[in-house]
Amino acid sequence: MPSYSTASAAAPQPTAHPIQHQERRNLEARSDTGLSLAAPPVVYHPLYSAPVLPPGHRFPMAVFGLIHSQLLSEGVVDPRQVHMPTALPSRDLLRLVHTDDFVDAFCGGRLDQQRVRRIGFGEVVHTQALIDRTLAEVAGTILTAELALEHGLACNAAGGTHHAFPDHGSGFCILNDLALTAQLLLHQGRVKRVLILDLDVHQGDGTAAVFRDQPEVFTLSVHAASNFPARKQASDLDIGLADGTADEEYLGVVAGALHQVLHSFAPDLVLYDAGVDTHLNDALGRLALTDAGLRRRELLVLDSCLGMGVPLAGYVGGGYDADLAVLARRHCWLHRAAGQLWKEHGL
Ligand SMILES: [Zn+2]
C-alpha cells in the first residue's frame, strides 16, 4: 500500500482535469452542511451517464441521469442537497486497492484484450470519456461516504462496482468504488470498521477478494446462488439464495443477517450496494422481489443501521430492464426510503 502523509491523506488527491472547474455552487453548498438539512444528501455527476456505449448495449448507462431527474421531478430530493464530486481520484488513490499495472494500463487507455473482454464494455474502455466516467463514479462514491459520515445518511445516484478485482475488472465494473472508499477512509483514520452490505443479485466477488484478509472490513453478500459470477469468492458472510426467492423469505434472510452483523461486528460505517437486479422482472436477476419488496428492503436496511446510530452510504448497484424509466423508478426506492427515514430518525 502506498504511504500518505497526514496532509495528503486528508482528501482524495485531485488530478488536473476539467471537472475540477465545475460546480463551485456545490462546493459552497457543502460548506454549510453542518446545519440541519431538510433532506438527505444525494451525490450525482453528469458523467455518470456519459453517452459512451454503443446503442443497445446491455449496461444501462443512461439510467443514472434518469434517477437524478426522477428524484428531482418527484420532489424526493432537495435540489440544494445534490452534491457533485469536484475532482477525479488520483492514481495513488486507486492504488489503495488496485495494482500499479492495472491502474496505469486502464488510466492510460492500454488495457490488454483479455482484460477488456472481462469488463464487457468493448473497445470503448480505452476512451477518455469512459475513463473519466469511471473515475467520476469512484469520486462520487467516496463523496457519498464522506457525506454519510457527516450527516448520518447519504445516497449516490450510481456506484456499487463490486465485480472489480485489484488487477482486473469484470462484469461492467472496472474500478471497485466500494473497496476504494473503505480503504481510503480506513487509511485516513476516519473509520475503524466498515461493513460492505451487498444486496445486488450478483455476488460481490471483487469486494470479497479485496478484503479477504482484512478484518477491518466485513463483507456481507446476499445474492442468487446460481447467478454470475459462476466462481464465487469468499465474503465474510455469503448467503446464496435459490432462484425465485420472493419477498417474505428474502426480507427475513436480510433482516437476520444484517441484525447479526451489526451487533457482532459493530461497524462505524455501512456501504450499502442496493442493486435492484433482485426484482422479479429484472433481465439478469433470478430472484422475485416485487416493488413492495424492494421498498421494504430499503426501509429495513436503512432503519436497522440508523436505529443503531451507524452512518449509511447507499449506492444504486445493478439493475437491468429495457425500460429505463421503470428501472430508474426501482433504483429510486433507495432514495425514497432515505428521505422517509431521514425525517423519522431526526437527522
Ligand atoms: Zn448485479
From TrEMBL:
Residues 1-31 are annotated as: Disordered. Residues 1-16 have a biased composition (Low complexity). Gene3D superfamilies: Histone deacetylase domain. The keyword Hydrolase applies. Residues 66-324 form the Histone deacetylase domain. GO terms for molecular function: histone deacetylase activity; hydrolase activity. It comes from the Eukaryota. Keywords: Hydrolase. PANTHER family: HISTONE DEACETYLASE, HISTONE DEACETYLASE HDAC1-RELATED. This is Histone deacetylase domain-containing protein. It comes from Chlorella vulgaris (Green alga).
